Amino acid sequence: MKPKFAQRIAAQANVHWATVGKLIQTKVAQGMDVIQISSGDPDLPTPRPVVETLREAVLDPTYHRYPFSFRTDIHQAVATWYQNRFGVTLDPASEVLMLAGSQEGIGHLGLAVMEPGAVAIVTDPAYGSYTRATQFAGGEVYLLPIHAEDGYLPQLAQIPADVLAKTRLLWLNYPNNPTGAIAPLSFFEEVVAFAKKHDLLVCHDNAYSDIAFDGYQAPSFLAVDGAKEVGVEINTLSKAFNMAGWRVGMAVGNAEVLAAMGAVHRNSSMGLFGPVQLAAIEALTGDQSWMEERNRIYQQRRDIVVEGLRSIGMQVEPPKATLYVWAKLPPGYDDSFAFAQWLLDETGVWISSGSFFGEGGREYMRATLTLPTARLEEAMARLQKVRL
Ligand SMILES: Cc1ncc(COP(=O)(O)O)c(C=O)c1O
User: Is the peptide bond before 330 cis (omega within 30 degrees of 0)?
Assistant: First the structure.
């Protein structure tokens, strides 16, 4: 038997990662000490009380049976966190949906909203999952370029009327992966008015809300009056709480949209392991003053990376948030994938090419801050020795 696959599977093949994986494997096999500055996977530890909560709960056999639904108090914990952190009031029963990581929510929102003939707007460059979730559900993507000179905020007036007529969903993400850009609340106000005018849904991905530097505090999209009427916000414990491996995220906002996403979840998954839910409640409601020191470490790493990239002629604006440093190639270079491979050959340092995030990233590289500081320092010292 030769299995036949749905078109959506062929469309998902991620050629870039396969190529990069092989490149790096080859170098390692040749004995090179490769430093990969390319993943957004936090290396700093999950807070101890969160780990202890799981450790105790795992012994309770009640949790070894199906977690048919999410706990009521985890919805309350998210509502409390949103109130305290963002000043946003949520009804825990209808305006909070728990997710097994925000990646699940992105996929499930695509399935809940998109279908053939419907368009979703995605910025170029962007985190790749918005395009994939849209296409996986049979929808079409309209790529809206974002530029350094606009602070990487989309110019909504540039979307053609015939595209808007078919658009159901606008994906946004600030603080932004990959550019590190941030959005003021006034931009979200503009988005809410635009969404109301054109009758479309907004999904704001706030995954990096709590990785911020220089005193910056990222707002929630839902802090704008009327945002709940047109949108949902996705958030996650992966980055804010150093809990990427635990797989806990949430979607909040428009109750009808969350109910539709919940229907997708119920048909493809079944809650989340009870001790993980308890640990998430501890994270969301426990002491969070530790984040300040964590962000200070990231900020120190940011400064090391910015200086190192500038030393080889790259143009870099230090980001106010996220785990990413977005850097323009040195003058005379315009192909970031070729440049990334050359840098790997010369130094053993792998930095993602911006082209992985869209054509708009062709002249950029995305470095990350998730390596021990000493290792990042070593990577930057290697860069400083290269001759362009
Ligand atoms: C913008 C953005 N959204 C969502 C995710 C997925 O995070 P999670 O661990 O919550 O699935 C990532 C991961 O890197 C991301 O960069």
Answer: no
- What pLDDT is attached to residue 73? 97
| Whether the Cβ atoms of residue 127 and residue 102 lie closer than 8 Å to each other | no
Phi, psi of 130 (to 5 degrees): -65, -45
d(CA 279, CA 202) in angstroms, rounded, equals: 30
Instruction: Identify whether the C-beta of residue 206 lies closer than 8 Å to the C-beta of residue 178.
Output: no
In degrees, rounded to 5, the angle at the alpha carbon of residue 195 between the alpha carbons of residues 194 and 199 is 125
Buried b / exposed e over 48-83, threshold 16 CB at 10 Å, is eebeebbeebbeeeeeeeebeebbeebbbbbbbbbe
Residues of the chain with pLDDT under 50: none
Token readout for 271 is 């809650």
CB within 6 Å of ligand 1 — which residues?
40, 101-103, 127, 173, 177, 205, 207, 236, 238, 244, 249
Residue from 41, 78, 103 to probe ligand 1 pocket by mutation (most atoms less than 8 Å from CB): 103
Q: Give the Cα separation of 265 and 263 in Å (integer).
A: 5
Top mutation candidate among 236, 246, 252, 357 for ligand 1, by most atoms within 8 Å of CB? 236
Domains identified in the chain and CATH numbers: 7-45+290-384 (3.90.1150.10), 62-285 (3.40.640.10)
Q: β-strand 96-99 against 249-253: which pairing, if any?
A: antiparallel
Q: Which residues pair with 233 in a beta bridge?
A: 204, 252
Task: Give the pLDDT of residue 8.
Answer: 84
Whole-angstrom distance, CA of residue 352 vs CA of residue 365 = 6
The answer for residues whose C-beta is within 8 angstroms of residue 248's C-beta and 6 or more apart is: 98, 99, 100, 101, 236, 237, 238, 272, 276, 277, 280
